[in-house]
Amino acid sequence: MHNGNGIRHDAGHSFSSQPDLVLPTQSVQNQIHELAKTLPPPRKQNTACDACRSRKVKCNRIAGQDKRHQHCLSKNYPCTHYVQQATSEKKRATAARRPRNLSVTASPSLSSVSSHSSPVDNGSPPYAKASFNFSWGNLRPGAIPGVSMNTTSAQLLVYLFSPPDSPSEPGNIYSAVKSRPALYADWGDEAPKLDDETFRAEFALDLVEVYFQIVHTRIPLLNPLQFRNRLNLVSKSFVPFRTDPLHPALVATVLAWGAKFSEHPLLVADRSRNGGQSRIAKALLDRVRELAEALKVHRIPHNDHVVISLLIEPLQCQKPDKEPGFHGFWLTSGIRNLLGLQINHKSVMATIQDPEARGTMIFAWWMACLCDAFSAFYYRRKPILDEDDYDIDFYTADPNSPDDGAPSPREQLEFLGYYRAAHDLARISRRIARLLCRPSTEEGLPLEDLIRTMDDLDEWRKRHLRKVGVPQQQESRWDFVTAVSACASDAQYHVMWTGLFFAVDEVGIRDRDNSLSPSEMNQIETKKRKLYSEGLDAALRIAGLAGVLTQNGYLKLDPAVMHVSIIQAGQLLAKSARPEVSACIDALEQYSYAYEEALEYAQEIRKTYEHTSVHGPEFAEMASAVRALRVPAGGAGTDDMNVDQAAMRHSPNGSLQDYIDF
């Protein structure tokens, strides 16, 4: 029971007998008061006008007037405050540029921006229209001069493609000033062409097409036709749009994605100058994040902001300790935006009349939901969402959609059952992630939870893997989307086994009451051997898939979908001293074309393999299982299982090459 002041007290008891709020004693209050008196006084704000400031005369304000001062009035001087205004603007700009200490919530991917990008979208739920009454034009651009929600795409390109301030400071990219050609030196010999407006527009259009050819097929979040029509780069006049412009942060994000994979001569020259990595792509990523923060993408729930957030997350470096504060930040922001729009409510989703906007938000919700579950397991963090946080049906293709040709990427994935299978796997991932982030699990993973998880994975394999994984025989040729989707779905299941193996190797297995009988100890060892068998089998399978994709050059075009699977498979094979690890190393080296950190992983895995190939496998809690199942050199397998023979069907040199006819 609460009183009017918000302080609780129970019926039948006096307020003084059971207080919930403990107030400081009189002596403590006196100490705080005395301490406060020793603090320095706040700095007095200098409000002198320009005339008094230049003459160094005390400037007393007339009572009842905000700007007029006594000295100015008596001398008939103009009472202006231009210096004070400029100082205030400079302070605000400096504060906006100051690095933010963002909280880290780990994670590693998501349909069209709605057909209208106005602040109150025709496809937005009534909740958004009623509760978020704001104007895009009133948003301050922060540290980005001349960029606002009314900025045209042509104007935005001036900022996005401006060079570093100086060749000696390549990290300082927050300049929208049109610079001399010499300032483009770090970006390659072709970069000075970016000073030309026509070249900038042509380059941007090339990046947009690369995005839709490569990224959109894996993360179909945008409507290509609508985006191209609203981009409007043909006009050279810097006049604000009379119709809804594309969100500047969305345009920047699409261009940054294109720069990751494009082989435009400008980017080829940039990579050749900088050791295979593109400084232009890195600069665009930094500007995307700065632009998104300045335009409050992470703070204001809106359809566009959902899409932008979910597209930025996989665009970034995928190594958690590489860019502290960014890994997982934009995924979390996208989920917050979705919850703010109440997209998790079926009743709200049903009110969106525009089919395109509704499909976008449903697709975005499920991609965010799945990414949250899987990344929580991969990076050992507590998932943001749980099953009781939503009641909407997972994405299904519209049965009433007109038959105007080939189905969209979303429809292709749904027809093949990917979403249903992924959601079932996400439930398993979410549950084991919650277990692994508990402090009590540091003493060991409960045996019954391990058994349940392994049984669930076995059941998932029986129900879904034949439908969504890579089949053993494929009669017709696959297209790019079907091939990489099947490989990714196949690997996503198998990496659950490798991740579970590493978790048990780290924390071990325990009983609930920490009192294990001999039969329970024997059961634990049996489960460990099965887990190692499944984990190694899964790692070899992923290595085989990675080898096929590498040979076809597809991993140069992967938007951070297969990276975790390949890394974990490579680590397990390297620690097991398995030569098949070479397929994962080659795959990560190809991956580094777009994700620089993949090369670091490849080097670490190679170093681990070189060590274990001499000294033997090195594990912690799983060491006994590895020794029991390891096949001695030139010897036969154990009675339990010959792991080498059981897993060879997934070797890169085995029959998997014949499974897929690309």
UniProtKB/TrEMBL annotation:
Primary location recorded for the protein, binned into one broad class: nucleus
Region spans: Disordered: 1-20, 90-124
Start-end of Low complexity biased regions: 103-124
GO cellular component, one term: nucleus
Molecular function terms from GO: DNA-binding transcription factor activity, RNA polymerase II-specific; zinc ion binding
InterPro entries the UniProt entry points to: TF_fung, Zn2-C6_fun-type_DNA-bd_sf, Zn2Cys6_DnaBD
All copies of domain Zn(2)-C6 fungal-type, residue ranges: 48-81
Keywords (A to Z) from UniProt: Metal-binding, Nucleus, Transcription, Transcription regulation
Family matches, as CDD domains: fungal_TF_MHR (cd12148), GAL4 (cd00067)
Subcellular location per the Swiss-Prot or TrEMBL entry: Nucleus
PANTHER family for the chain: ZN(II)2CYS6 TRANSCRIPTION FACTOR (EUROFUNG), ZN(II)2CYS6 TRANSCRIPTION FACTOR (EUROFUNG)-RELATED
Protein's name according to its UniProt entry: Zn(2)-C6 fungal-type domain-containing protein
Source organism of the structure: Coniophora puteana (strain RWD-64-598)
Lineage, broadest ranks: Eukaryota, Fungi, Dikarya, Basidiomycota, Agaricomycotina
